[in-house]
Every structure is written in C-alpha cells, then in structure tokens.
Amino acid sequence: MKKQLLISALSFAAILLVNTSVKAQTANVTINLSDVISVNPNSSAGNADGSGDVLFEYPDDAAYKADQTHSKSDHIIVTSTKAFDVKVQAGGTNFIGEGTAAGETIPVNVLTLKVNEITSNVGGTATPVVLNGNLQTLITEAPIGSEKSVSIDYFIPKEKSSSTDILGKPAGDYKQSVTYTITAH
User: Fold this and answer.
1) Each residue's pLDDT tens digit, 122-132
2) What DSSP assignment string belongs to 25-78?
3) Residue 180 sits in a domain of what CATH number?
4) CB–CB of 68/59 below 8 Å?
C-alpha cells in the first residue's frame, strides 16, 4: 500500500511538472542607423542674432600697425557618423565697401582663418587658410562624434593692415560672407 501510494504521488508530481512547464516568447530588437552629418543650430556661425559675425576695427594708427585676432568659440558644432572635413571659402574675391566706401574693395586674402585648437574638440588635422573665393580645407579627417566643436580665430596680420590692401582705403564698412562646408567621407 505504501508502495502504491508512493508511486501515485510520484506520478501525480510528474503530471504537475509536465503541465506546469515554462513558456517563453522572443522579441526581436532592431537598431536602424542612418548616416548623419549636421551642424548644430547653436553654432555661433550663422546665428540670426549676429553673435557669429566678426568685426575688425581700425580706429587709430596703432590698430593699423598691429596684428588683430578675433576668436569665435563653438563657431561650428558638428555631429557626424563618419569622418569629415571642414572647408571654407569667401563669397567673392574682395570685401565690398558700403556707405561712404561704396565701390571700394579690400582683397579677402588679408584674412587668415585658423582652428583654435585650445577651445576646439574636433580633432583631425587643422591647417590655417588664407581666405579666397575657392573652397579650401581647414580641417581634414576629423573623427566621428557628437557635438564636435570648431572654434575659429579670424586673423589679419599687421603686414596686411599696414599695406595698401587696407591702409589708404576710404573709411567705412567692407563686408564679405564666409561659408563653411562640412563633408563626410
């Protein structure tokens, strides 16, 4: 009787184990990536508020005899899923006089652009560019990354400001656009 009771209990336990088996379901997870290259709208270059604009002033003789540098932090902020280059070009070959200087010009090659490597986190190889109307490479092979900051130093050397390129021109504002192009590899 004990033997039959034991066999019955074991049989009942086996039936419970078979009927209470674990059920599982599987879900597939997909990560869909796209190539992205973008310039953050918070970059100072191109801000509608003018914070990215650069103003060189020559109010007295000392200014014409001195180097002038204007630094723009976070001038371009790039997110890219691929290595990229930063290129730059002027909108024309000359700064164009306005107002009392209308019709006068200053060649854009008075201006040199340099990556400020202290305040930039972009990486890659930076090369100073003497501005002209052609597309020129400012940074080569910047690595992938999110919010890579490019800070730019705009520089006019005293050799240019004390030459006839600038010295002797009529007083007034001379303007030209500078366009940055980001190209992924």
Assistant:
1) 999 999 999 99
2) ------------EEE-TTSSTT-TTSTT-------SHHHHTS-EEEEEEEEEEE
3) 2.60.40
4) no
